[in-house]
Write a structure and sequence with these properties.
The protein is mainly alpha-helical. The chain contains five helices and two strands. The chain has a two-stranded parallel ribbon.
C-alpha cells in the first residue's frame, strides 16, 4: 500500500519523522515503516538521523500472525463438522469456539509457537 497524499504532503511527513527521531534521547530507536519506499529511508539516513534501525516487514505474512492459527484451529478442528441449527445462532457458536483457548493455555501457546513467536 502506497502512502496517501501529494508529494508535498509526503515530504512534510518525512521531515516531521526526521525531526522526531532527531529529538529522541535513546541510543537506538526502531521504526516500523508501512508503505515507505527505500529512497525515503535513505534520505533520512543521509540527513544524519543516527541511532535508527529500520525493520522491513512483509506486506502480507499470515504465517507470522498467531490469530491465523487460531482461525485455522477453529475452522478446521473445533467447528469442522458443526452444522448450526440456524444462521442467527452461528455468530455465538463461532465466538464460543474462538474463546476456548482462553481456558486452554497450552493451545494458546501453540498458536504463538506456530508463528515462531516467543511469549
Amino acid at each position: 500500500m502506497r502512502p496517501q497524499g501529494t508529494a508535498a504532503e509526503l515530504e512534510a511527513r518525512r521531515l516531521r519523522a526526521a525531526g522526531f527521531f532527531r529529538e529522541q534521547k535513546s541510543s537506538t530507536d526502531i521504526a516500523t515503516l508501512c508503505g515507505v519506499d527505500i529512497s525515503s529511508v535513505k534520505r533520512l539516513q543521509a540527513e544524519g538521523v543516527s541511532g535508527l534501525e529500520f525493520a522491513w516487514l512483509p506486506a502480507y505474512a499470515p504465517e507470522l500472525n498467531p490469530v491465523e492459527s487460531l482461525w485455522g484451529w477453529s475452522k478446521y478442528s473445533d467447528l469442522a463438522n458443526h452444522v448450526p441449527d440456524d444462521t442467527p445462532r452461528l455468530p455465538a457458536v463461532v465466538r464460543r469456539s474462538l474463546g476456548k483457548p482462553r481456558r486452554r493455555p497450552q493451545l494458546k501457546r501453540s498458536f504463538f509457537h506456530a508463528a515462531k513467536l516467543t511469549l
